[in-house]
Structure formats: C-alpha cells, structure tokens
Specification:
Layout lengths: L2 E7 L10 E12 L2 E9 L6 E8 L6 E4 L17 E10 L2 E11 L7 E10 L5 E3 L15 E10 L2 E15 L2 E13 L5 E9 L7 E10 L2 E9 L12 E7 L6 E2 L19 E8 L2 E7 L8 E7 L4
Parallel strand pairs: 8-10
Antiparallel strand pairs: 1-20, 2-3, 3-4, 4-5, 6-7, 7-8, 8-9, 10-11, 11-12, 12-13, 14-15, 15-16, 16-17, 18-19, 19-20
Organism: Massilia soli
InterPro entries: Glyco_hydro_beta-prop_sf
Protein name: Glycosyl hydrolase family 32 N-terminal domain-containing protein
Length: 312
C-alpha cells in the first residue's frame, strides 16, 4: 500500500498570478537533494500555464523555491495550445530536458468545449523552455480525431515509447458535452517524431469511462503503470470522480489492468477526500514516490505518497 505523506503545495495567489490549481505534478530530479515539480496553475479561469517549485528530495513537503513566472508562453491565436499549457512528462536527454505538455484550446459553445493535443518544449537549464514546433508532436489522426494528450514517455533499449490519453468520443451527460478517452501507445526514434498506430494499451471498461495521465516505472522485475480513471455523469468531485488505477506488464506491450492493486484511494477527509488524480511516479533510493492531485482536479493542491521497495 502507498503511505500518504500529505499536501505539498496549493495555489493561493503566489507571485500575484497563481490564483488557482496546482495541477498535473510532473517531476524531475534536479540533483541529489532537489526535486523540481512542474505543474499547471491558472492566472484566471479558462487559462492554464506551467511553472515549477523546487522541493527537498528527502521530504518533498519542504518547498525550497517557487518560480515567479510561467516557463512557456501560451500558443499563438488559433494554435492547439492558445488557452492552456499543462505539463505531463519530463525526460532528461543528455544535458537537455524534454518537457511534454498538454496544449488545449477552447471549442465552440455548442459543440465540444475544447481540443487538446501534446506539445514538446526543450530546455538546456531546466528553467527556460523553447517549443520544438508550433505543431503538436502527438496530434489528430484519422484513427484519433479528438485528442492525444497527457502522455508518459519512456526510453527503453534505444526505443522511445509513449502511453497517452486518446479521445474516443464526446457525449452529452446531464446537458453537458463530456469527453471519453482510453490509453493509446506510440513509438519514436528520437522523442520528437512520433508514430501513432491507434492501438490501445488499456481500454475502457465501458463507453462512459475515461482513462488518462499514465505513469510507467520498472520495479522488482515488473513494469508498473498507474493512471487515473473516471466516469462521465458525476465526476466533478462527485461519485464518478477520478480514482487511481493500476496495470502491470512484463514486456511493455501487453498490460493487465487490476485497479484493486493500485494501493491508494481517497482519504476519509481533507484535500484528497473527493478525488485523487494525475499520478506521477519516480524512484527515490529504496522507495517509490507518487505525486498526485486531490479534489477539484488540483484546485486543492498536490501531495505525495511513498511505497517502500523490497530491496532484499
């Protein structure tokens, strides 16, 4: 079981612009003693921008630094990321950081309320990032016309792999258009040009379920994936709100879903009592650390949990 350690950070007007949400924590081990957590915050309703905090690697509840500005501007008018830049995965490639992010743009008032795809920005110092392109790197295809977002990227034996949230439909529930999505897989030789085969790594249990924000790590000889899932009719802190699921694999190709083994659920009270979402798992010495959001998709902040590893 995961041992919850508590809240790390929430947005409460820091630097005059972080007015709500500390969403989708995305973690890079900056050095032996410091973790850098990229996250999305909102300067105003309907806009998401990415910044970061530095925390102690030995106790992530100890915040060492809060960055004072977004690390990437919103996209140009009409672009896929003009209304939102939300981090999803960070990969160190030599001395550079590849930051994959979910970019989103508002839709129409009568149709789907937004569209979202995956962008890539690269940094030489971990602070200043530059887009590789104005186009997304995971994009709309014939097989995936709705969305391709919230990815996890992994380099394994010279091959890049990705697992990401792929839109399957938009449906109306209680007078609102709601998005459903499963987890697809993609491959790449360089982490920039991706081949989207339209193959599901994990499928939904029913046509109103949505799966998103996978995180993959190898421990004790097995590949482990944590992700989050929700329903579509009452998921804004309601009965269908996000929970964290789990799957395992021996080869990164075939996954067995077993949510009962996720090892973490909502708390009895407090900031993560109604929802737990957007897990991101890293290894820290002899344990795993899971960073995640609580109620309101991160409106009440981010926290973390620990899982001790069998090192015998």
């Amino acid at each position: 079981m995961w041992l919850k350690k508590g809240k790390i950070f929430d947005a409460s007007g820091q630097h005059g612009w972080m007015h709500s949400h500390a969403q989708v924590p995305t973690v890079w081990q900056k050095d032996r003693d410091t973790l850098r957590i990229f996250f999305a915050t909102r300067p105003e309703p309907g806009l998401s921008m990415t910044t970061f905090i530095d925390v102690s690697a030995h106790d992530p509840r100890e915040v060492l630094y809060v960055h004072d500005r977004p690390i990437l501007a919103l996209g140009k008018a009409g672009s896929f990321d003009e209304h939102g830049v939300m981090p999803s995965c960070v990969v160190q490639v030599g001395q550079r950081l590849f930051l994959y992010y979910s970019g989103w743009s508002r839709g129409t008032t009568t149709g789907a309320p937004y569209r979202n795809f995956t962008g890539l920005a690269i940094s030489d110092d971990g602070t200043t990032f530059t887009r590789v392109s104005q186009e997304p790197v995971l994009k709309a295809t014939e097989a995936e016309p709705y969305s391709a977002t919230s990815p996890f990227m992994l380099r394994d034996q010279g091959q890049w792999r990705s697992w990401y949230c792929s839109g399957t439909s938009w449906r109306e529930f209680n007078g609102k258009m709601e998005h459903q999505y499963d987890l697809k897989t993609a491959s790449s030789q360089d982490g920039i040009e991706w081949h989207q085969a339209g193959i599901a790594a994990l499928q939904c249990r029913n046509d109103s379920e949505a799966l998103t924000r996978p995180t993959v790590i190898r421990a004790n000889g097995t590949w482990h994936m944590w992700f989050c899932y929700r329903g579509s009719s009452d998921f804004r802190n309601g009965n269908d709100s996000y929970r964290i699921g789990y799957a395992y694999s021996d080869d990164l190709e075939h996954w067995t879903r077993d949510d009962a083994q996720a090892g973490i659920d909502v708390s009895g009270s407090g900031w993560d009592a109604l929802m737990i979402a957007y897990p991101y798992v890293i290894r820290q010495e002899n344990k795993l650390l899971m960073f995640y959001n609580g109620n309101g998709f991160g409106a009440e902040g981010m926290g973390y949990a620990e899982y001790p590893l069998d090192t015998r």
